[in-house]
Structure formats: C-alpha cells, structure tokens
Amino acid sequence: SAKDGYNLWLQYDYIQNNELRLAYKSNISNILALGDSETMQVALNELQLGLSKMLGTEILSQKDLKGENLVIFGTQSNLDKKLIKKLKKELEQINNEGFIIKQIIIKGKKHIIITGKTDVGVLYGVFNFLRIIQTHKSIKNIDVLDSPKVDIRMLNHWDNLDRTVERGYAGFSLWDWHRLPDYIDSRYVDYARANASVGINGTAITNVNANALILTPQYLEKVEALANVFRPYGLKVYLTARFSAPIEIGGLKTADPYDAEVINWWKEKTKEIYKRIPDFGGFLVKANSEGQPGPQNYGRNHVDGANMLAEAVAPFGGIVMWRAFVYSEHDADDRAKQAFSEFVPYDGQFKDNVIIQVKNGAIDFQPREPFHPMFGAMPKTPLMMEFQITQEYLGFSTHLVYLPKLFEEVFEADTYRAGKGSTVAKVIDGSLHNKKITGVAGVSNIGNDRNWTGHPFLQANWYGYGRLAWNPHLNSGDIAEEWIRSTFSNDTHFINPIKEMMLNSRETVVNYMTPLGLHHIMDTGHHYGPGPWVENLSRPEWNPVYYHKADKNGIGFDRTNSGSNATNQYAPEVADIFNNTATCPEKDLLWFHHLSWDYKLKDGNTLWDGIALKYQQGVNEVETMVHTWKSLEKYVDNQRFNEVEMLLNIQHKESKWWRDACLLYFQQFSEKELPEGVEKPI
Ligand code: GCU
User: Fold this and answer.
1) Which ligand 1 atom sits closest to the C-alpha of 386?
2) Among 338, 372, 392, 522, which is best to mutate for testing ligand 1, by the most ligand atoms less than 8 A from CB?
3) Has residue 64 been placed in a domain?
4) FRET pair for 82, CA 20 to 30 Å: which of 26, 248, 415, 565?
5) Is 507 a catalytic residue?
6) Is 588 a catalytic residue?
C-alpha cells in the first residue's frame, strides 16, 4: 500500500532481515484467543494483521492448545487454575489496565502468554507485543510486565459541531456529525486503534469553548454511535459541558448552580446520557474563562460549579474535569498568577470525583514555560496535566517540533512541595500526595488530513503524548526511537540522525521564536509568526508588549519580589532559584527578570548579543534539519520524503522571518549592532 502516512506507527513493515524474521517465526506459530468479547476480537484482528505483515506469512487463529509456540492471549478469568498459579506473582503486580507478556511452558510445550485483569489490559499487552517486534527487539524468553501510572489518559478535541477545529491545523474534525449516527466512517475505528496502541483511554470529542447543542438528543444519538465504536478499544467518551446549557437548551432562566431547577436539569441530563452511553466518562468544563459562562456569573465560585456537576455524574461513576485556565481583565498585573489565586484557596473543597485540569505552564502553551505553580500546591485536590499537542504557538502543523521533549521537561521539574524530588510527574501520577484520581490530557493535533496530523513527523507528538500519559517517567529519546522504528525504518543509519533531529527540534523552536524565557510574542489572534510589536488590543494581557516589556532599559517580565511576585506562588526553594539571576536557569531568564541590554550572560555575552545569537542558532539548526533530511532520502518513500522536505524548507524560511522580525523590532530599544555571526536582515 502507498506510504501516505495513514497507517501512522502501525505500519507493520515486513521484516527484511532473514535471520531476524526466522528468529521471530521460530517463536510464533499460531494464535490462540481465550475469550470472545469484542475487545478480544479486536486484539485478535490486530495480532493477525501485524504478525502476518511483519513475518510475511499468514498467522492463523486456532481454537485449542495444539502444537507449540502459540501466542495465547486472554484475561486472567479465562486462564486455567494452573496457569493462574504460575503467573500469581506477576498478576499481583499489575493494575486493572496492566498486562503481562511472558514465555511459559504448558504441558512441556513453549508458548507466549499475553494476559491481564481486564480485556483492555490484554489489548494493551497485544499492542505492546506487536511494538516489540516492530522495533526489532528480541522475544526470546520474553518477560514483560507493565501498568499505566495514570488513570485517565485523555485526548481533548477542540472540535466544533460545524467540523472546524479550534487551533486545529490538520484539516477538519474527524467527527462527521451530518452523517452520524448511521454512517460509521472506518476512520473512527482506526482512530480508536491508534489510541489503544499507546494506551489513551478517554476522548473529549468537543471543544472546551462548548456548544450546548451537543447535549441535545439529536446529538447525543450521534455521540452514542461513536462511543459504540470506541468501546472495544477501551476508549471512553467525555463531553464538554457548557455551563449555561440549562438556559440555552433547557429553557430555564438561570444556570445558577444553587438553583434547584438547574441542579435537577443537570441530573436529568446526565441520566439521559448514561442511558445511551453506560460507560460515559463525564464532563470537561471551561468556565469563567475567556468569556465562557460559569458559576461566577451568579456570584458563585469554581467549587460550587464543579461540585454541582460532580453530584450529577457521581451515581454513574463519572468525573468532572474542571479547567484551571482562567484569567480576567480585572486583575491583570500578571496573568501568570491568576489560576493559582483562584484555585489554591479551595484546596480540599471539591468533591471526590472532581479533577482540576491545569495547563503545563501558567500562561498558555508557549514553546517554553516554567512549570505551573499549581502543581504540588493543592495536596488535597486531584490535579491533571493539560498539554497542547496541536501546535498553536509552535508553528502549527508546518514546523517540525518533537513535543515529548517539552512534556518530559515539565514532568521532570521539581516542585519541592514535599522536599527535593517532588517532581511534577509525581504530582500527576498521584504518588506525591496520594491522589485518588490521576489524569493527563492532551489537546489533539488530529484532523481529517490523510496523514491525520498534517505533518508526518507530528504523528510522533500524538504517539509520544500517549506513551507519556501512560507513564510520565518515560524517556523522550526512547519514545522517539520506538516511533521512528515503527513508522519509518529500523535501520540505525536512519534512526540515529533522525532521533537527534527530533530531540533537538524543541530547543530549536525556542531559539528561533522565544529564546531565554521570552514568551507570547507571536502575532495576535492566530498566533502564527512573530508579532512582538502588537500593543493595542483591548485587553492588556493579549498584547505581546505586555509579556516582553522591552524598552531602552532592557527586556523581560519581572516576576520576582521586586515585580509581580509570581515567584511567590512556588515553594520557597523554587522561588529562591527563580528570584535570583545567579540561580535562575538562563532558559527562563526573561520569564522572571527584566534585565538591561548589557546584562552579562554566563557565557560572557551581553543580553542583547545573547538574544541575537540564539535567534541565529535557531535558524542554523533548522538548516541542519534540512540537510539531515536530504541526506536520508534513500531510507524513505517518496511521498513522505517530499512532504517533509517541503515542510522543512518552509520552517527554514520562517525561522529567518522570526529572527529578522524580532531582532529588528528589539533593536529599536537596544540601539545596538548585531554581533558577529548573526546574519543581517536584508
Ligand atoms: C488558548 C487558545 C484558545 C483556547 C484556550 C483554552 O487561549 O488560544 O483558542 O480556547 O487556550 O485553552 O481554553
């Protein structure tokens, strides 16, 4: 089949290397499925497809334990007593979605068993087994055991009912509302497969800037159809709840969370949803943020709003994901402080099935932000991470940026909230404060483009996000390598340079867009390309000048105790590090400090020279990416090679645009020459 990217990382390429292929074959004959649930059927199909393609011979499914070297899979409840006894130790170590892949001997014959406590655990095991072969790892004496470290692993689609996608750059929404519920696009199945293959188990299919219509019977019927497709893949559906829905579609006069009719309306609505979708996940809510309605419209607070919805879904086991992305024009000395001020005082007041969804940084999905100060600061409230996989501020689907590197940096950051080593990863996996629910959300970069994500390499961000949601402690380099091997090639001549290119790409985008802690200087509204000069939008915190504060004296946002004191929202150890220019990491310097153009950086350069050199470095690095890709043409099919080549050329052109625009603009204030090595704009 054509290599157009449709098959994502599930290429299952034929293993050309004879020795390797024969080694696999000598350990794999047929498949034996125990149990026949829909999920087991899906697992069987995937195993047959993957193994047959990779081994180049049809792998059959058989009904009994004849022969040897079978790949046997099924849940614990389908295993016989002897086998359960044999696997007792392993079964004790996995959680409900975990799995075991192990070589075992039954009646003197060698087999491979894939098992877990639930159907979906087994499915995850099957995908893991396929990945081991896709990445050409040995299955001799195979012995793998794994469980997700986070309960809720979500994609958030910012998809509108007219199929436009807010901040979506890969075509229109996958959800064909017009033809649902009766027409089931086969793409829904492939979407669910791809998610299951990396362990994503939830999808909020509608925009956080929500339309109440999704909660009407006409739409719920369509949502139900999608939920039915996703269910065998362990993928639960969630919906965004517009807070004013009781007015808009319920005919009530108010949406006040204290009003008995409003409370009842949500209870009845929830019942109606669960009647159609018994495993409905719950609601995702953006309230009192950027003009969205919420409890504050009625003089109530976030706790009142979240708890009312939580009570409605609680009898059905549902949850409420209440977003902390709030900022208002009334309190705009520093937007970075607002979420913390609005939420932290309420720690411990939310119901058990509420989880607060916090963006990775305190502003908004910048190429680099210090970790959000809320992480670790609410020991009694479950907090979930919200990452943005779609590249709103990072060059849309045109620029190659490998985001797991960014995600990893956030997870590794130390909050010091329970002493040294209190990483964000431990806040998110619940281990730091023993949280009852844990979750990670990623704003999807998926659309109906043939290759799903617009840019072939941005599939790696969907993949890598899923892997890190499964386990926030994984290494982004290992993930990149898995992805390259499953998507393109197992040849190390290709893998090594491409892996390096991917791993550097995040720092590269920081260099040519927002070096040294600069942020939010993208052009306004669409956020594509530079716009540091924008200064006249109605709300101060929408203007890039608000963030860089460049003037004759210097540049940067003073968030220390001499400025907005946002650093005070971190643990004292962290605040000390950021407050002091000697200890503040230079990558975050201008996020926390306003410094003179002559300020001396650690390498001896002045701040002005340092900024200019970083912009140039970013451009040089993209040039290297272009060369690296060109040199590897023979390892890649034509279609994907050409697409990536054209996109990298655009990225190169636009990195120069960023450099020239920002340096020319800032130069008006610094009134200094560009240092040697920085190309002069024409
Ligand atoms: C950003 C983005 C909006 C989005 C918002 C959110 O501000 O530009 O399009 O609605 O984040 O996360 O709610």
Assistant:
1) 12
2) 392
3) yes
4) 26
5) no
6) no
Task: Please give the tally of structural domains in the chain.
Answer: 3
Domain interval for residue 611: 511-557+594-670
Considering the domain boundaries, does residue 369 fall inside one? yes
In Å, what is the CA distance from 31 to each residue of 34, 117, 172, 341?
Answer: 10, 20, 39, 56
Digit-coded pLDDT (tens) for 196-215 = 999 999 999 999 999 999 99
pLDDT tens digit sequence for 528-577 = 999 999 999 988 889 999 999 999 999 999 999 999 999 999 999 999 99
Distance from Cα 365 to the centre of ligand 1, integer Å: 9
Q: Which of 146, 181, 207 is the last residue of a domain?
A: 146
- What is the strand order of the sheet 99-106 is part of? 61-62, 31-33, 71-75, 109-116, 99-106, 143-146
Of 130, 146, 162, the position where a domain reaches its end is 146
The reported pLDDT for the residue numbered 39 is 98
Instruction: Report d(CA 519, CA 231) in Å as an integer.
Output: 41
H or E stretch at 411? helix 404-412
User: Can 68 be counted among the known catalytic residues?
Assistant: no
Q: Distance, CA 366 to ligand 1 centroid (Å)?
A: 12
Percentages helix, strand, coil for the chain, rounded to the nearest 5?
Answer: 45, 10, 45
Ligand 1 neighbour 364 (Cβ under 6 A):
yes
Of 325, 329, 398, nearest in space to 360 by CA: 325
Does the pTM of the predicted model rise above 0.90? yes
Q: How far is CA 194 from CA 234, 280, 575, 576, in A?
A: 12, 20, 41, 44
Nearest in space to 219 (alpha carbons), one of 237, 202, 243:
237
Please determine, for residue 296, whether its predicted confidence score (pLDDT) is greater than 70: yes
Determine whether the shortest distance from the Cβ of 386 to ligand 1 is under 6 A. Answer: no
**Catalytic, out of 290, 333, 551, 633:** 290
Structure tokens that stand for 401 in this block = 């940026």
Q: Establish whether residue 576 lines the binding site of ligand 1, counting it when its CB lies within 6 angstroms of any ligand atom.
A: no
